[in-house]
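pasting for the record
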Amino acid sequence: MSRTFEDLVAEADAADVSGWDFSWLDGRATEERPSWGYQRLMGERLAGASAGLDIQTGGGEVLAGAAAYPPTMVATESWPPNVAKATGLLHPRGVVVVADPDEPPLPFADGAFDLVTSRHPATVWWTEIARVLRPGGTYFAQHVGPETVFELIEFFLGPLSGDLRRKRHPDEETAQARAAGLEIADVRMERLRMEFFDVGAVVYFLRKVIWTVPGFTVAEYRQRLRDLHGLIEAEGPFVAHSSRTLIEARKPVTARS
């Protein structure tokens, strides 16, 4: 027997959404993964670095998957529950976690790191990344790409403008990186299928990924959630798509003339 709307929503609304672990959604939602395997590639680069910085580390779960760290390893995070979670996970392995508001300037000296990494940063401050990189240093990251979960966003907010559809496009991001003085070594994008099997999965996702529907609360969107519950009951999983961009940029060894 299927669970009621009220039951599914109440459960998801009470769930802990701290950190960046999505295991609560196991069996309730799926998302294809990019073919390149960011965590593995990140780990390979960390093993060869002398000083690393992971920006917007979340709860530290992705960084914790690396087998080895450089002699100096720092992570930043802005959300207090995630700062605490990342500290507990990463400090035992020698990683310093710094509470940072995710706006310039980064609290580090010029040229402090030869590797800067980030997985799904909410904002990308290219000038700051270039500043803290040593000449010859690398920024290696996986970004959320354009039109991610737009099907879900538009279900709640209505049609979005063309400008929003271009936001975070690889062409724009590489142009911004070059304007900050970085050289692009690699850029790839893939579009990936997502499925939500019940309305509770949607509630959990929107509470956790807070920029998807800004200001989302169950109380504010209860009727639309009820509509979505009926749609899933009648037609099956709600299908959306994410996009992911892998980007590797390097700071030139010598300054441009």
